[in-house]
Design a protein that fits this description.
single chain; 10 strands; alpha+beta; 35% strand
Length: 193
């Protein structure tokens, strides 16, 4: 799994299944300028969940090790010119974005692509869902004949972050009593800065 791609996923904490709220400023994302204008601002992502086929797991802001889950990379700025940026260890990371209907596609400078479904987009709230990865499609996430780079990254990062919640690693969930995930998806919620 490539670190830059993982950080991109973390930057978009990325990851709650929620419909649009009932406030008047919500829109259904589309190819309209209004949707792009709503997205074009700075977003702070502090809420991440991992949705499996059976359950949604909220990730804590602090890992069992005491380390913060989110660093400086949880603030993403989308610009009207179709570029985005965020900080990673105080270094600026940039890329390009497109929004078509409810699909946000982000491409890093190294051409790593991440695809997100826009569940909510308003002047104050942005809720995204990553691709859903079928973990039963193959036996190894690194098998490029079965999984795309994006699927391998989302699947690997999702399983790694779920492991941080396990009691055997200092977390609060006994995964020996939880259903084995068949799919994983990141759900992230952001607030406009």
């Amino acid at each position: 799994m490539r670190i830059n791609y993982f950080l991109s996923i973390i930057a978009l904490f990325t990851l709650t299944l929620a419909g649009c709220s009932k406030s008047d400023d919500n829109v259904n994302p589309s190819t309209t300028t209004a949707s792009a204008d709503l997205l074009a601002r700075t977003w702070v992502f502090n809420d991440i969940s991992i949705q499996t086929d059976a359950k949604k797991y909220q990730l804590p802001s602090t890992l069992p090790t005491g380390q913060g889950m989110l660093g400086d990379d949880n603030v993403v700025t989308f610009k009207k010119d179709g570029t985005y940026s965020y900080l990673d260890n105080k270094a600026t990371v940039t890329g390009k974005w497109t929004l078509t209907d409810k699909t946000l596609v982000m491409v890093d400078a190294d051409q790593s692509t991440s695809t997100w479904t826009v569940n909510t987009l308003s002047a104050t709230d942005l809720k995204l869902g990553s691709i859903t990865v079928n973990l039963q499609k193959g036996t190894n996430l690194n098998d490029s004949k079965v999984y795309s780079k994006e699927e391998a990254s989302v699947g690997g990062a999702g399983l790694l972050l779920l492991a941080t919640l396990d009691k055997s690693y200092g977390g609060t969930i006994d995964f020996s009593k939880e259903p084995e995930p068949k799919t994983v998806q990141f759900l992230v919620n952001g607030k406009a800065k």
